[in-house]
Please model this.
Amino acid sequence: MIEIAGLGKRYGAKTAIDDVTFAVRPGRVTGFLGPNGAGKSTTLRVLLGLDHPDRGAALIGGRRYRELRHPLRTVGALLDGAGPVPERRAVDHLVWIAQSNRIPRRRVWEVLELAGLGGAAKRRVREYSLGMRQRLGIAAALLGDPEVLVLDEPVNGLDPDGIRWVRGLLREYADSGRTVLLSSHLMAETAGTADDVVVIAGGRIVAQGPLAEVTAGHASLEKAFFALTGDREGR
Amino acid sequence: MTAVRYVIRAELTKIVSLRAVWLVTGVVVALHLLVCTANAGNTADAVSEITPDGLIELFAGERRPARPALVEFLVASSFQMGLFLPAIAAVAAGQEFRSHQLGRSLLAVPGRTRLIVAKTVAIAGFLLAVSVVVAGISGAYMYAAVKDWDPGLPVSAEAWAGQGKFVVFAVLTGLISAAVTILAQGTLAGIVVTVVLMALTLTQVAAAYAPALDALLPLSAGRNLLLDPAGSRLTAGAGHALAVLVAWPLVTMTAAGVALNRRDAA
Model:
């Protein structure tokens, strides 16, 4: 369970998010939608302890991320601003992450196989395509077999096969009673995967609830999104 | 404590799995081998010409008792490579600011203090290993030069003490470089600040006008700790030097930890 209450964050004079409040329930895939600069990444960065909130709280299972002893065993995350050093081999990248959270080495190979990177594990990350890097990021998120997944644009750069893999993975995760928070720009993709949606615009939450409820009265999630975020396309 | 041990292991893996670290380490070791090889002939010649009353002329016109002079030469040989070892620390610490790795590190270890402690120990461990290799090379070349005169000199108590001080100096100054790199959030900045600190000593400006100030500089403290006052003009005693060498990484690493705690992840 993820609970975000009254979260606020400013970068200098700019308010990135203001009074952001929502919850992500176990057993559901929750889509987190918003235009560029709406505050999605800031919310996720604060949730995951990378940035300090100015006010409010972001809790995972009732605790702040920073309070988790072996966080990767509870939360798996894929964030844009948290990447591997390109000259390091993919397997070494995952090995140090696993060691830091006392995750057995064999799990590194399991997630590499799961992500379809078993054959490329000893290649340096700089030799990876965008899609392979994305798969590596997802593999890192899965290392600790966590109860909670927080993924920022997970299908970016993936080919259709990769997109299908992610979609199945998220569904499987949620169906096993775990919590999935998925940030995305892709409306069709989110509509096909999410059970619940949270829409953020201008740093504030403008809608949240089950997908059917949020899209009620609109032809599609995309139409609902543009209507909620004030874009003329939705009118 | 156990949790920190695992983070230290992870930090060591980060260091040894980075090609740039091995590249810089290789350059430093190769440079040391080159310098030692270049000096080997002259040192052997000087040893072969040690006078019956035990004097050696390692540098033209400068006759000194052979044993302390050779021990100091051995330690100085290692010490000169100590100037380059901070670059290894800067590269090891600076990787966090490449491709936003710091974000990934903080996802894995959100406790900033734990991360900085583990990083400090891991970098110190790697520097320790490299500086022992450097000291070993110096010792091997010295053995080759003195084996017919006093083969036990490179492993004498004086030599061990001197080489030990070098290792302490190398690790502590390396940590300063790592801390500055974290503070400045970049490898280049870490190297530049370290070079500036060294230049202040090497130019001897502070030593000439304010010896007390000079004694507070890390490289000057290294000289004061390692070199023989009889053979070199020093600005403070060994105890003062050790205190300075411990204080620098302590203060800079603490500052780096505070900065890491207060800042958002880059």
